[in-house]
Structures are given as structure tokens and as C-alpha cells.
Amino acid sequence: MLEAKNLCKFYGSVLAVQNVAFTLDPGQVLGYLGPNGSGKSTTVKMLTGLLEPTYGEVTYDGQNIHKDLIAYRKILGYVPEEPNLYPHLTGEEYLDMVGTLRAMPQSRKSTTIASLLELFSLWRHRYVTLGSYSKGMRQKILLIAALMDNPDVLILDEPLSGLDVTSVLIVKSLIQALSAQGKSVFYCSHILEVVEKVCSHLIVLRKGQVLAHGPTSSVRQKIGKDSLEDVFLELVEDADVTQIVSDIVGVVACS
Ligand SMILES: Nc1ncnc2c1ncn2[C@@H]1O[C@H](COP(=O)(O)OP(=O)(O)OP(=O)(O)O)[C@@H](O)[C@H]1O
Ligand SMILES: [Mg+2]
Q: Which residues surround ligand 1 with Cβ inside 6 Å?
């Protein structure tokens, strides 16, 4: 079980994440929602061990993840928000490097890479360098890299970014299938319609603080709204969307 205990993160004097606490059990898909700059990716980086919390800790099966980060990373699959891929490597070379770093046995590594490249429609692009991949193709490579070593915990920061309609459907169903197998998924997204479908639990964040936390249906019920979009607007956004749109149209028309 993954546990975030009162996580706080300061960047200089900016408090990006404040007292975030939750548990992520096997089979659970936890949606992490919040507006731009609310602290989602900062939380993700603390969960993956890329950033140390200023206060608080992340534990896996009761042990601080920084005690043995290598062992922790072995059970972790991570799709980052920014794809920092090596542009001169081909898709296949990159995945091979990831598999080697994860110490996957050679034969399992090659067969898994070949199968996943095929299933994500990248087989015929396997010898093309990542620098020439489209945005969606790079995103698929990140997904394959996260999945290929059969991780127990998946941490996904906007995993559907740039994916086409079929791939979105595949990834949504895949998350549900993996959770049914007992995998834990931490799912950061802005796409409320998807979050609503795939997440068993939700955390709504605003300015680094948790506004709501619980099973998806009860978060929705608590606010008395039908759709997650209404819940989100009620809890998080104090903006008048109609007014903002009309002001933008006005500014553009006058420029
Ligand atoms: N490396 C950094 N140095 C300084 N401040 C940072 C850094 N990374 C993030 N921040 C600040 O921390 C806050 C939270 O940023 P974060 O990237 O976690 O938000 P987010 O919820 O992931 O946003 P988005 O939806 O746009 O991806 C913001 O105020 C941001 O400016
Ligand atoms: Mg982010």
C-alpha cells in the first residue's frame, strides 16, 4: 500500500503542496484533480521519489520510499507530465534502455517490447528516432515504458495527453482492467469525464490543499451535483466561465 503522509512542498517561499494525505490500496484508482498550478505534478514527483517532501513522507508497505528508492522504483510505473525522451534514440532503443535499467531479463524484455509496440500501433515506427515521433506517438512510448515491467503501482500524470480517440479508449479500459488485477493507479488529469469513469476515489485539490477526498460517488453526492464538472466548478473554480469567454472574445475582436 502506498501512503502519502501530510505531504508539504515549498519551492523557496511558494507552498505548492500543503498537508496532502491519502492511502492508495491495491485495486484502487485514485483520481487527482485540480486547476493549473494546484500542486498535482509536485505531488506526483514526491510520490515517485523525484522530489523530497519539505515535510511529511511517502511510504510503501510502511517504509519510507527514500530508504530504498531502487526497490521502490521496480514496482512503480510512471508516466510523467513532460516527456523527457532522448530524441536521438529510436522507439525500440529507448524501451530497451528502460527495460535494461529496470533489470528485466533479456527475453522477457524483447518479447514484451515487441508485443506492446505492436499493440500500441508503433511496430512499424520502431526504428524511427523519437525526435521524429508525433506527440501522441511519444505519449504511447511513455505508456509502454511505464507498463512494460508489470508494475504494482502506476502513477500517471495526464496519460491521455495527445492520444487519438482509439488510444484513449484503450488506455481508459486498460486502467480499469489493471485495477481489477489489483494494481494501484494514481491518476492526475483535467479530463473530468474520463476521471469520472475510471476512478474509484477522488481527491480535489486547490492551491495545494485537499478540498474533497473520498469515493467518486460520495464526493459527487456530498456537493449535491450530478456531474463531476459541476462538482469541480463548485469546489475549485470561482471563475465565471461565460464572462471570461465573452471578455476574451471582446479582446480578440478589438486587437
Ligand atoms: N520547479 C519549480 N520551481 C518553483 N516553483 C514550482 C516548480 N514546479 C512547480 N512550481 C510551482 O508550484 C505550484 C504547483 O505546480 P504544479 O506543477 O505541481 O501544478 P499542477 O497542478 O501540476 O499544474 P498543471 O495542471 O498546470 O500541470 C505552482 O505555483 C508552480 O508555479
Ligand atoms: Mg501538472
A: 11, 14, 16, 34, 36-42, 81
